[in-house]
Design goal:
It is a single chain. The chain has one domain (5-245): Alpha-Beta Barrel (TIM Barrel). Helix content is 41%, strand content 15%. The chain has helices at residues 16-27, 45-52, 78-83, 94-99, 104-116, 129-133, 137-152, 177-192, 211-218, 235-245; strands at residues 5-9, 35-39, 58-61, 88-91, 120-125, 160-163, 203-206, 225-228. Strands 1-2-3-4-5-6-7-8 form an 8-stranded parallel β-barrel, surrounded by 6 helices. Helix 3 links the parallel strand 3 and strand 4 (88-91). Helix 5 (104-116) runs parallel beside helix 7. The longest helix is centred in the middle third of the chain and has 16 residues, at 137-152. It binds phosphoenolpyruvate. Phosphoenolpyruvate binds next to strand 8.
Amino acid sequence: MRRKLVAGNWKMHGNHRANAELLAGIIGVRPFGCDVAVCVPYPYLSETAVALAGSDLRWGAQDCSAHEPGAYTGEVSAAMLAEFGCRYVIVGHSERRQYHAETDQLVADKAKAALACGITPIVCVGETLAQREAGQTEAVVKRQLSAVIHALGHCAGEMVVAYEPVWAIGTGRVATPDQAQSVHALLRAQLGAATAHAGDMKILYGGSMKPDNAASLLSQPDIDGGLIGGASLKAADFAAICRAAG
Ligand code: PEP
């Protein structure tokens, strides 16, 4: 049985006071019976590490550079994240693919850079509404995942995959459990062709997961947790989702 993982994606939200309250609110109601992590903006990694030290909660970042440390102004290397104790880094979030023109190859290179530094990449894949309506969901997510599988080679089994339909992110429009499960099953089949560890790998669902829809999504056989945006900013909502996963 795969242990579930619930990871919060704070996106570009937070300030010192709100972060302290949010983290205290989550710590105060654990344990949850699943793995829990928060992926925070870079400037808040240090205070998050301090706040979560000694707890079973993990932390991570929302992106990393594909490059080795060097002359790349504005970039943050995976090695730097490792120094902050990051356990996870999100790569290939649709907002980065959309607003920062990240290609499948760049996402794959970032995942590889993360793993090389001992950080588990949470690799996001997902189709837009237009792609879904055109019947392209399977082709799109397979293409996105294939680039990462190819780059990681025999280490492919060490990543976490997050299926995040773009039309469900931040929209309040959630995939039905059947819609999500069918994509998760095909992603696991694709992983199975590449690694002997596919049965142990976590495939998270992300896209408007909330306390009231979490249980039905998380009860699907191939949904191993959630990547949570908006609801991860409210301690009570995030904790409720973690409880549903536990
Ligand atoms: C996300 O940003 O990864 C996400 C899933 O956002 P939301 O939960 O707000 O849809």
